[in-house]
Amino acid sequence: MTDLAIIYSDLFAKHSMDRAHPEKQARLDEIVKGVKELQKELNYSITFFQPEYIREEDLISVHVIDLIEKIKAISLAGGGMITIDTTLNKHTYDIARLAAGATKQAAQLVAEGKTKKSFAIVRPPGHHAETNSAGGFCYFNNIAIAADWLTNKKGYKRVAIIDIDHHFGNGTSHIFYHRKDVFYLSIHAHPMYSYPGSGYPSEIGIREGKGYNVNIALLPDVTSTDWLHSLQFGLDIVKQYKPEIILVSVGFDSLGGDPVGIMNLSPNAFICAGYLLNQLAEDTCGGKIACTLEGGYKIDQLKEVSKKFIQGLLGNKPFILNKFEKSATSEQTNSMLNQVRKALLDHWKF
Ligand SMILES: [Zn+2]
To answer: Does 2.40.110.10 match the CATH number of domain 4-344?
Structure first.
């Protein structure tokens, strides 16, 4: 069994937006370079898999036909625009289906015991895509399609999605807002200061899904210490959910200096995050964890941060974690965590 399955295709390059757009293939090129370096450096086996296009029935299970047809029609016409920052070229429909297929494959390889850990390195990203709308550089919701496939086709009763991208994954949250078989935890920049303008701690889900949506919204310039304490706080809730498998929306846009972000994480925060996620998976579901890429636009550091994240994910305990754990959380972040606690007191133990 390989230690880590990477699902990636050079075909992702075919989808492109404006030349100046931050969501571009160079991001993936850097991350893949990093993975190839790790293949040589680490005592782990890392295996590349070619993705398959998502099947229409899996797409329809999450998105309305109107959205699918709209993306298909614009692509067939040679390209166009969905929102001002989310445009299509003639390949977008196919490549968005490939990104969804890759993410589903990442989940499938783990679910079927081919590997314990996987990472779909994809573009376009997916977590802003809603059931009936595209936006925020996203067309189809890759991770939601994978989670829905696990519950529908594989009989999973408790799938946890952990979204560590800088931005709130509005699409993922809303798709599962009324469901308890898919838990959603997101740690993101506060909606008052960042796209998409939602993701408050009071948004905890509805009906059967009440309590199964956890939002931790952090103020601008948040430090690695505060971010990691917040992540640990969220992971302690996920642990109580007892997931059977963990899916992760990985974004590197919380890194300090990211052109799209307003957070201030150091690269070392990502090795710690990878390690904490790995620990949670080992403690709850036999280490089963499937990741997919969302954002991250600081091209010159993407190789470094993705390598660090993967090293942590593979169980390498970073010595720096201890330093972060011993540092105090700021008053602002403590107050946010109190808000989250208050909103969820009836549902989880704190
Ligand atoms: Zn993002």
So the answer is: no
347 is catalytic: no
pTM: 0.98
C-alpha of residue 30 to centroid of ligand 1, in Å? 17
Report the distance separating Cα 258 and Cα 263, nearest Å.
8
Rounded to whole angstroms, how far apart are CA atoms 281 and 173? 21
Question: Mind giving me the DSSP string for 85-131?
Answer: TEEEETTHHHHHHHHHHHHHHHHHHHHTTSBSEEEE--SS--TT--S
Does the structure show a pLDDT above 80 at 42? Answer: no
Q: What pLDDT, on a 0 to 100 scale, did the predictor assign at position 260?
A: 96
pLDDT of residue 350: 96
Closest CA to 4 of 58, 45, 63, 53: 45
State the distance from the centre of ligand 1 to the C-alpha of 1, rounded, in angstroms.
32
Rounded distance from Cα 102 to ligand 1 centre (Å): 19
C-alpha closest to that of 14 among 168, 119, 124: 124
- Mean pLDDT value of segment 169-196: 98
Bridge partners (DSSP) listed for residue 5: 47, 118
251 alpha carbon to ligand 1 midpoint, in Å? 6
The dihedral through the CA atoms of 180, 182, 185, 186 has a sign that is: negative
Give the largest Cα separation in the chain, rounded. Answer: 56
Catalytic residue among 15, 63, 127, 128: 128
User: What is the four-CA torsion angle of 138, 142, 148, 150, rounded to 10 degrees?
Assistant: -170
- Determine if the peptide bond prior to 22 is cis (ω within 30°): no
* pLDDT tens, residue by residue, 132-163: 999 999 999 999 999 999 999 999 999 999 99
Specify whether the CB–CB gap between 205 and 211 falls below 8 A: yes
Determine the Cα–Cα distance for residues 203 and 153; give it in Å rounded to an integer.
28
The predicted-structure confidence for 282-293, as pLDDT tens digits, reads as follows: 999 999 999 999
User: Residue ranges per domain, the chain?
Assistant: 4-344
